[in-house]
Amino acid sequence: MKKVSLLFGLFACLVLNPFYAQDADVATTDDQAEQVDAAAQEAAVEPAVEPEPIEELTEETEESRGFHQTMKKTFIDGGPLFMAIVLICFILGLALSIERIIYLTMASTNNKKLLDNVESALQNGGVDAAKEVCRNTAGPVASIFYQGLDRHSEGLDMVEKSVTAYGNVEAGRLERGVSWISLFIALAPMLGFMGTVIGMIGAFDAIAEANNISPAIVAGGIKVALITTVAGLVVAIFLQIFYNFIVAKIDSILNDMEDASVSLVDLLIAHGKK
Asked: Which pTM value belongs to this model?
């Protein structure tokens, strides 16, 4: 009886074992499918990260580098010697122009207000009060007024002479350095033309050595000639603009000085009659 029961149990195990294994495989497959679905949902929820605009930054960097490299190559192709001299002329001329513009801007004053203050000082405190007003005011007009008032006791003729003489001194101060700017304006294109001539000489020498008129042989010398000429003309044009502005500013200040000097003499004449 025991043997029959044991055989029946073995038979049941052999028959039911495949069904249990199939159920386990199905459960495992279901778990894996659920994990895949959960991972897909999480990936869908997470926001997409936009890539950084690396290409735009690279293009801008390449453009800036390209510009600097182009300028450097042009400078070297034009001949370092003549291009360096033209560059020095530009730097010196530009520095003098900026210095003159700053000086002339500071020299420009409100002459009408100064005349009103001097007239009020003459009426209230006399010549000494008017001299104090001029001493505390900046600009060439105030300096001319002070020189004229300082010689008021010597007569109006001496006042006029002192105003005229010191006006010439102030005019010289206003025009200081302007001649150097005009020199650089004339010198820059001349250096460019000299580079042109030297470049053409080099081109003809290359033709003579090769005994052949070829565009490749002539191109090098002509390129040097054109680059130096363009550089000199560009420098001259820029400095000429600053020069004309400075000259116009000086003429304006000189006209104001003359008008103010006449007004000062009129004020002293009116003050002497009182």
From this structure: 0.67
Each residue of 246-271: pLDDT tens digit?
999 999 998 888 888 888 888 887 76
CA–centroid distance for 220 within its chain: 32
DSSP states along 165-204:
HHHHHHHHHHTTTHHHHHHHHHHHHHHHHHHHHHHHHHHH
Residue 64: CB atoms within 10 A of its CB come to 10
Which run of H or E residues covers position 214?
Answer: none
Q: Where are the domains of the chain?
A: 1-46, 80-274
Distance CA 198, CA 221 (A): 8
HSE value, Cβ hemisphere, 13 Å, CA-based, for 101? 13
Structure confidence at residue 58 (pLDDT): 52
- Name the token pair of 22: 């199939």
Question: Whole-number mean pLDDT of the chain?
Answer: 75
pLDDT of residue 100: 93
Cα 265 to Cα 274: distance, rounded to the nearest angstrom? 15
CA distance 24 to 31: 11
What's at 134, amino acid-wise?
Answer: C
